[in-house]
Amino acid sequence: xxxxxxxxxxxxxxxxxxxxxxxxxxxxxxxxxxxxxxxxxxxxxxxxxxxxxxxxxxxxxxxxxxxxxxxxxxxxxxxxxxxxxxxxxxxxxxxxxxxxxxxxxxxxxxxxxxxxxxxxxxxxxxxxxxxxxxxxxxxxxxxxxxxxxxxxxxxxxxxxxxxxxxxxxxxxxxxxxxxxxxxxxxxxxxxxxxxxxxxxxxxxxxxxxxxxxxxxxxxxxxxxxxxxxxxxxxxxxxxxxxxxxxxxxxxxxxxxxxxxxxxxxxxxxxxxxxxxxxxxxxxxxxxxxxxxxxxxxxxxxxxxxxxxxxxxxxxxxxxxxxxxxxxxxxxxxxxxxxxxxxxxxxxxxxxxxxxxxxxxxxxxxxxxxxxxxxxxxxxxxxxxxxxxxxxxxxxxxxxxxxxxxxxxxxxxxxxxxxxxxxxxxxxxxxxxxxxxxxxxxx
Length: 442
Ligand code: GLU
Ligand code: MG
Description:
With 442 residues, this protein is an alpha+beta fold.
């Protein structure tokens, strides 16, 4: 860090700098340093216990099967390019950090895992661009009941009027942090909103996901509301997805399409890799017990191992553009914001590259609604059922050699231990119990 940055933070009247990271359970955490001592600690990293990567989402109780315990210190190494003053908490600034151990990137650092995926893609001549498309719920609580800010339907202009000020404030706060806001509409469920942002390179996209979640929650607090990205809050209403939009690039050119309205072979191979690894991938992209209450047929949540052009029920949708070039990207829907974005996107990249390397074929694009077909017909079309709960997804990940090797032995051990603990503790929970425990975690 340079003394210029300290001066910039001083002139912005910042009091605390939050050195921020996201753990295996996808809890965003930070240690803050006061501006008064920052100048004399420019090169001095902030430490955290290694056990931080062994905590399940429920509580700060170390899972011993993770291989981590009270002994050992990892160091937060800020990436100064991510430094931002927080528009919703202007006396604080945030910088995103990598985790180091013994002067090296720590094998359990999620951000470094994504960097390894990016490097592997580069070695295959592919650059991945991405955006997480968040849905979230705005809520207040009354007498221990959760009350959504509206009870409107999809794209309702009434919801726009009711929530205009907070939506404007969230957008302004994102823009102030150099994120380009693209579109907004009220989503289907009560209090549910969707704001989409511009794609970025893979690391930037995952960083933006942290900024997005922090910003929505921070602004909601200013308005006396709760914001939640929990995948399923109301049993019979749409859940909160966090679809992952992806495009593949080579030598500065988007190579997702083939120039004649279809996907390129490389993009098809990449999608085939995602579909092939999907049951295991879900332990990273839909990793909470609650995630599986969202993934249901007829909820447009990616409940089938299928892909198709403009098909909102399959795991992968290829949206067509109204004007050429088309398609320019594809959308992986079996993702929600309970996923650590670095781990989820890194794993998706490794799975997609496996498809490219092995020249996997994703099969024919699906142009039916798989939710309307009998299991036997689905099987004929090669459409397979997905894990029905986190426990099943964990078993698939535990047996997926490609993803385990990509994660590495230490990260996969700790990650699986954390998620297994969550599954053991929460598998019998009813939705309302799970919602009250997790609503404000994600
Ligand atoms: N809310 C749906 C989901 O759970 C997505 C609806 C849509 O934007 O297509 O993923
Ligand atoms: Mg949506």
